[in-house]
Amino acid sequence: MRTFDRRRAATAPVPQNGHKVAFLDRDGVINEAPKAQHYIQTWEQFRFATGALDMLKALTDHGYRLVVITNQQGVAKGLVQPQALSAIHRNLCAAVAECGAVIDGVFFCPHLEAHDCACRKPKPGLIQQALVALDYPVDMARSWMIGDSGRDIEAGAAMGLHTLLIGSSDHAAAAKATLVAANQQAAGQLLLGTDAQSDGE
Description:
This protein has one domain (18-161): HAD superfamily/HAD-like (Rossmann fold). Helix content is 34%, strand content 16%. The protein is built from six helices and seven strands. It has a seven-stranded mixed β-sheet, with helices on both faces. Helix 1 (52-61) runs parallel beside helix 6. It is globular.
């Protein structure tokens, strides 16, 4: 399932190999993660993680398209109403736009983990949905999955994306990630530094 933000014109120039995209997990990357077994139910409960808005602005300024990829099984549990989740994502896109960044789409899995669906991370179904739905080509070789868990890293790797792990003590996930950052500020600096090195090759 998805929510779109069309603020960035579809007629923007397309790089030769397609756009580079930062696919981002939501909870723990863009906003402060709720406690275990708890869910953000309203926009009033949503708090941006420290440094997240600056990271999103920096990525946008350096030519990245932004797409959110998030598991939200609170919907299936009846703890998060679908309308409330849509409102959270609309407000998220609007708040990010006010800071000079643009989220092109929010793709979410509402299913229970026990359902073993194709879209819940660590499966790559949400990324696949995004690639079909987005109205521009994606340069997968220059795109990233940014998350705070092994699920995010596994989903990104399954699609051939570079992966960046933020603020996690999961050593197994860290060993598999392309880059590891202590926080959002460091994540933005690492990714853009790697990007600059690639451009200079």
